[in-house]
Amino acid sequence: MKARAGSADARTSCLRHADWGYLAGDTVAAARRLLGCTLVSTVDGVEAGGMIVETEAYLGRGDPASHAHASKGRTPRNDAMFAGLGTLYVYVSYGIHHCINVVTGEVDDPAAVLVRALEPSTGLDAMAGRRGRARDLCNGPGRLAQALGITLSHNYHDLAGPPVQLVKGPAVADADVGSSGRIGVSRAADWPLRFFVRGHPAVKAPRW
Fold first, then answer.
1. Residue 190 neighbours by CB distance under 10 Å
2. Per-residue model confidence as pLDDT tens digits over 62-84
């Protein structure tokens, strides 16, 4: 079900500029389609990454939980959300945790998908060193960003290639995908825009 991060096959299937249509047009569908894709970072010459197993969609100006809701407008913090499909949007949550988002809207259409969890597969030692532990490497948005070494310096990066690369993976079967309301938001939390691989150990509850 997964492409091995950093492999030759993974690199050749990288989502190039002309291929972002896979995620275009519908951010909810994009959040679902990102399951099974691989996110790979190259930091200090070391690759680390894994298969995406949990996501949340944020629908831009019409979404009360989005950083780019119409009431907030365009700000220095959310500006990367307006940069177009395939852009990496990184923000800091509660002044502590970096969070990774894939922009799914076109230029000036600030929709994005939060990557909430990965199944780590490459660079495990590097991830453990960054996390200070060998378990719970990528089960949560802040943890996975720390494990991959992704910071605000990667904001606006084009995910078509290193140092942060999105690799298209095989689709996860519908029977293996669950959905729920979003986690950790105070507005529109009940919107069913969280998607996850059912029963996966990297997915926080609810996982079914």
1. 10
2. 898 888 888 888 999 999 999 99
Give the bridge partners for 49, in sequence order: 40, 122
Q: How much is the pLDDT for 207?
A: 63
Q: Which CB contacts under 8 angstroms, 24+ apart, belong to 58-62? A: 58/27, 58/101, 58/111, 58/112, 58/113, 58/114, 58/193, 59/27, 59/28, 59/111, 59/193, 60/27, 60/105, 60/109, 60/110, 60/111, 60/112, 61/110
According to DSSP, residue 199 is labeled: T
Q: Are 97 and 141 in contact (CB under 8 A)?
A: yes
Q: Which two structure tokens, joined as six digits, stand for 135?
A: 């378990």
Cα separation, 178 vs 199, whole angstroms? 9
The whole-number average pLDDT for the span 21-44 is: 93
Q: Name the pTM for this structure.
A: 0.88
Asked if 51 contacts 166 with a C-beta cutoff of 8 angstroms, the reply is no
The CATH number given to 8-197 is 3.10.300.10
